[in-house]
Amino acid sequence: MPPERIPVVVIGGGQAGLSVSWYLGAAGIEHLVVESATLVHAWSDKRWNNFTLVTPNWHCRLPGHVYDGPDPDGFMTRDEVVDWLASWLRTFTPPVREHTTVTRLRQLAGDGFELTLSGSDGPRVLHCEQVVVATGGYPLPITPPFAQSLDPAVTQLHSEQYFAPEQLPDGAVLVVGTGQSGTQIAEDLHLAGRTVHLAVGNAPRVARTYRGRDCMTWLSDMGIYDTPAAQYPGGKAAQEKTNHYVTGRDGGRDIDLRRFATEGMHLYGHLIGGKDTRLTFAPTLTASLDAADATYNSICADIDAHITAEGIDAPPPSRYRSVWEPADEPTELDLAEAGITSVIWSIGYRPDYRWIEASAFDGGGRPMQTRGVTQVPGLNFVGLPWMHTWGSGRFLGIDRDARHIAEVIAQSLDPAALDPEALNTEALNTGRRFRLAAGQ
């Protein structure tokens, strides 16, 4: 069959790709969204049952769809997020081809791209002028090489496969990693009465509320989420750090690993190796806890400075003080002796763009882009962490990022067609139909 021709193809039907589709559709630009499963499926398929957002509900902003529920300072549960996204999808009709995977994307010798698709109707080929890759920054879950050397009697899951304590066999659980997922899963198991062992990484933490408001609301007021990546303090090193751990569960609270230790949770440093039932840890626990608390207090100090500079009336400042110190640094653990029957890996994800044949990636396999636009004409990305700001990849920044990509595409397809006056704040806030292209 001859290749199907479509001006723009968006690969990925999550909230980022669909946001670009929303703008392209409003502009009357023909396009297609290709999704390997179903739209926004990751929210129901890859979050545990007691998952909640860690950012306040008022951060939830998508094109034409802003959270307007009764609890803007609260934190939606997984099911509430799924319902909120479903209500957004009822407001427009994106052109979607679901259960279809792009197995190859290559740049054509002239202009444009060729996409090879695999779906229920067999392989197909698409040709397009513009591509938006919205498959997420890090789709492949990481497990360490030695995981396959552990005792096969021990159940192993990645954090995206965990849903509830009941799915695990009886016995203690080892959670590896203390990013947002690892700490919240450890808490979920702890609250369910399971004995939890936790390998602590180098993730920082943040207070849930400070001086009368949510910390993320203070940070938003301070412009932290709007600062372009190139201007962000600390540069690349700051951007590479794991996100701060905190929870929105039960209305939101701090996650204090030291307090968990006083309640019976077993803490260790970095997990560096293992075989059969024996694991080895680096003696990094004290340093990791101290560093996380230092970040916590540093953020509070930054908020103090903002409050003083703006003359804001707020409750008095405070600092976190340790409630527990490790008596020693355990470096070995026998899973069988500790009664550990399950291991949950929560050590992150890695990029996988091997299916894209284009010179748009650095040595680590990450896209080289500026606000989602690469040096390869017509190849764009959306939904990446730090694509433009710290808010990129979050609900708070997706609308702005998607709108920018849609503008770039519209100008590329017809440089004379863009109508800047049509892209006004009122149209974005109300979700009214607007024009990117003149005369439409």
From TrEMBL:
Keywords: Oxidoreductase
UniProt xrefs under InterPro entries: Auxin_biosynth/cation_transpt, CHP04046_FMN-dependent, FAD/NAD-bd_sf
Protein name per its UniProtKB record: MSMEG_0569 family flavin-dependent oxidoreductase
Residues that span the membrane, as ranges: none
Keyword Transmembrane helix: no
Keyword Zinc: no
